[in-house]
Design goal:
There is one protein chain. The longest helix has 23 residues. With 334 residues, the protein is an alpha/beta fold. The strands form three sheets. The protein has a six-stranded mixed beta sheet with strand order 5-4-3-6-7-10, with helices on both faces. A three-stranded antiparallel beta sheet has the order 1-2-11. It has a two-stranded antiparallel sheet with strand order 8-9. Helix 6 runs parallel beside helix 8.
């Protein structure tokens, strides 16, 4: 919870002052009682003392004061509101290094499971595209709202070859532009309910890679520059540990074990350049958590609602409760 006028919270100093005055009044009660000199008659008039009940109306009144003073600061509450539409392009590394087992059972299997989580978390109206890259690049699934189609394509990914990260980003940009052209060709997408032009659907790219760029025609940072110019943020994820080892087959058909650390520095630059965000995923649990978090960030807007009326209403209810109990128990209104 936040406040539009936080300085108004300084008025809450009135609450401890009111508490102090109430405590002082309670200490002075015996002095006033002593003025009634006929104590035997006093005992007959008052059959029993109110005890702890006499403090309840005062406590409710103090709570009402605190609530009312808090309302002066105009409290606000943040909540998530699903976005109406967007296109999410999953650009996923399927190079041979994804067979590394530093993330169990393999980097590829962990990436597939986490991708399913992201697809599940995104709102139903979102279009999702899947692009894979290794030695070459491919748009596996063009932007679609059919989540089962995307899930099936994720399960079919197989790791093989080198890493053309830059080309993968460019292919992701191409997929998003093809989607924009498809949307523009749809009459319903060109106008709102009143026939006015609607805003372009935002595009977000989620880039997952577990190694350095080794192949391709485009440098990753040059590709990121293209995304930045088009206003496409890239959420870059470095998968794996610095000690990861993959067993690959070389050109002579021999198997070799090579170290395959993720290129975190390049991915950080890509995220920073495109106003996205960088994540490091050294474990399957970390990757799962990242994708869940991305689903909430990408699929929802954070909106703020002022709840001053609620605080004022609560203060009024507390005042009525204090007055009602005082009338019920003591036949007087405080």
């Amino acid at each position: 919870m936040s406040f539009a006028w936080p300085l108004a919270l300084l008025s809450l100093w009135l609450v401890p002052i009111a508490v102090a005055l109430y405590v002082l009044a309670q200490y002075r009660r015996p002095k006033y009682a002593a003025r009634f000199t006929n104590l035997d008659l006093l005992a007959n008039v008052v059959d029993k003392t109110p005890g702890w009940r006499r403090h309840i109306p005062a406590v409710l009144g103090l709570l009402a004061l605190a609530t009312l003073l808090t309302s002066l600061a105009r409290p606000e509450l943040e909540h998530q509101v699903p976005k109406e539409e967007a296109t999410v392009v999953l650009v996923t590394d399927v190079s041979g290094s994804m067979t590394a087992t530093d993330i169990q059972p393999t980097r590829m299997a962990a990436a597939q499971e986490a991708a399913h989580t992201l697809v599940r978390e995104l709102p139903e109206g979102f279009r999702i595209s899947l692009v894979s890259f290794s030695a070459g690049v491919r748009t596996v699934v063009a932007p679609t709202t059919e989540k089962p189609l995307v899930d099936a394509a994720i399960d079919a990914l197989q790791p093989l070859g080198g890493t053309a990260m830059g080309d993968g980003i460019v292919e992701g940009i191409t997929a998003s532009q093809l989607n924009a052209e498809a949307v523009a060709a749809t009459p319903a997408a060109n106008s709102g309910a009143d026939g006015e032009e609607s805003e372009d659907s935002p595009v977000i790219m989620v880039l997952l890679s577990d190694g350095a760029n080794t192949l391709g025609q485009t440098d990753p940072l040059d590709a990121a520059q293209q995304a930045q110019e088009l206003g496409i943020p890239i959420f870059a994820i470095a998968l794996g540990t610095q000690d990861g080892v993959a067993v690959i087959t070389d050109n002579q058909g021999r198997q070799r074990a090579i170290n395959v650390p993720p290129d975190e520095e390049t991915l950080m630059e890509i995220a920073e350049m495109t106003d996205g965000k960088f994540f490091s995923a050294p474990s399957a649990d970390d990757l799962e958590s990242i994708y869940e978090d991305l689903g909430s960030k990408i699929g929802y807007n954070i909106e703020t609602t002022e709840i001053t009326v609620g605080f004022a209403a609560a203060a009024a209810i507390l005042v009525l409760a204090a007055g009602g109990l005082s009338l019920l128990w003591f036949n007087r209104f405080p």
